[in-house]
Amino acid sequence: QVQVVESGGGLVQPGGSLRLSCAASGFTFNNYRCNWYRQAPGKERELVAIIDRADSSTNYADFVKGRFTISRDNAKNTVLLQMNSLKPEDTATYYCAAIGRNNYWGQGTQVTVSS
pLDDT tens digits, residue range 21-68? Predict the structure, then answer.
C-alpha cells in the first residue's frame, strides 16, 4: 500500500523555524524525485523545493532560497524540509510529492506563521 505522510507542521512566530518530514512507503522511494509544494487559502498550489532521486541535487523557488533546505534519506524513505526565518507569507498547507513513474501525494501538513 502506497503511503506518503507529512508531519512537523504547526504554529510558529515570524523568524522561527520548523522542520517538515515526509515518510514514504509502498514503492521504491529512491527511484522518485521528491518535491515539496504549498498552497495558501485562495491561492494556487506552488512548488517550493525539489530534490532529485539520483544525485540529490536540489532546486528552490526564489521565495524560499536561502531560508529552506530540502534533503532526503533514501535508507529511511524520508524527505525533510528545514524551514528557517519563516515569514507570515509562508503560511500554507505543505505537501510532499514523489514524482516518477507514478505520482504519489501526501495529505499535507499545516504551517502557520503568526505572532
Answer: 999 999 988 899 999 999 999 999 999 999 998 778 999 999 999 999
Please tell me the distance from the alpha carbon of residue 86 to that of residue 112, in angstroms, as a whole number.
9
Is 72 buried (19+), middle (13-18) or exposed (0-12) by CB count in 10 A?
buried
Round to whole Å and give the CA distance between 35 and 50: 4
Under DSSP, is residue 29 helix (H, G, I), strand (E, B) or coil?
Answer: helix
Main-chain dihedrals φ then ψ at residue 96, nearest 5 degrees: -105, 140
Which one-letter amino acid corresponds to residue 78?
T
For residue 31, give the 3-state DSSP assignment: helix
d(CA 53, CA 115) in angstroms, rounded, equals 37
Q: Stretch 5-17: mean pLDDT, rounded?
A: 98
CA dist., res. 58 & res. 92, Å (int): 21
DSSP code string of 59-109: EE-TTTTTTEEEEEETTTTEEEEEE-S--GGG-EEEEEEEESSSEEE---E
